[in-house]
């Protein structure tokens, strides 16, 4: 019986125990991993990025967001609901009107850091 020889590429034959221990100690809880991945997934949609850009400039109502982005109010509302459920944006009620803004400075920082990264080359 003839066996097929396979080769696997390895970086080295030594495990760097201290480095592995540091990485394991800095690990994330499973819920943190899931929540963080969900935030990045939410930010991975061009329409939602445009909405976040608008809200990084000013608090806005659905009508104004729709007008600024040249979208229907229905389409904007759908995206706002998703972003609100992810705690990326928040809603402030004023009478019958709803005004939306970024949830906190962490979201603004995340957005601005990403924008800075793609802007410099």
Automatic annotation (TrEMBL):
<feature type="domain" description="HTH arsR-type">
    <location>
        <begin position="28"/>
        <end position="121"/>
    </location>
</feature>
<protein>
    <submittedName>
        <fullName>Winged helix-turn-helix transcriptional regulator</fullName>
    </submittedName>
</protein>
<dbReference type="InterPro" id="IPR001845">
    <property type="entry name" value="HTH_ArsR_DNA-bd_dom"/>
</dbReference>
<dbReference type="InterPro" id="IPR051011">
    <property type="entry name" value="Metal_resp_trans_reg"/>
</dbReference>
<keyword id="KW-0805">Transcription regulation</keyword>
<dbReference type="InterPro" id="IPR036388">
    <property type="entry name" value="WH-like_DNA-bd_sf"/>
</dbReference>
<keyword id="KW-0804">Transcription</keyword>
<dbReference type="Pfam" id="PF01022">
    <property type="entry name" value="HTH_5"/>
</dbReference>
<keyword id="KW-0105">Cadmium resistance</keyword>
<dbReference type="InterPro" id="IPR011991">
    <property type="entry name" value="ArsR-like_HTH"/>
</dbReference>
<dbReference type="InterPro" id="IPR036390">
    <property type="entry name" value="WH_DNA-bd_sf"/>
</dbReference>
<keyword id="KW-0238">DNA-binding</keyword>
<dbReference type="InterPro" id="IPR018334">
    <property type="entry name" value="ArsR_HTH"/>
</dbReference>
């Amino acid at each position: 019986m003839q066996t097929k020889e396979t080769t696997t590429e390895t970086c080295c034959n030594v495990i760097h125990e201290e480095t592995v221990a540091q990485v394991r100690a800095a690990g994330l809880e499973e819920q943190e991993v899931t929540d963080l991945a969900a935030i990045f997934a939410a930010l991975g949609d061009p329409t939602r990025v445009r909405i976040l850009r608008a809200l990084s400039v000013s608090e806005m109502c659905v009508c104004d967001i729709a007008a600024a982005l040249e979208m229907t109010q229905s389409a904007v509302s759908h995206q706002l609901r998703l972003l609100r459920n992810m705690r990326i944006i928040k809603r402030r009620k004023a009478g019958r009107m709803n005004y939306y803004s970024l949830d906190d400075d962490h979201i603004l920082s995340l957005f601005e850091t990403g924008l800075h990264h793609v802007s410099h080359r």
